[in-house]
Amino acid sequence: MIVQEQNRLETVASGLITEIQGQMKQILAQTAIDLDALGYDYFTGRGFVNASAAVLGHRLSTRFCLCPADLVRLIDKLA
Question: Does the global pTM surpass 0.85?
Answer without folding.
Answer: no
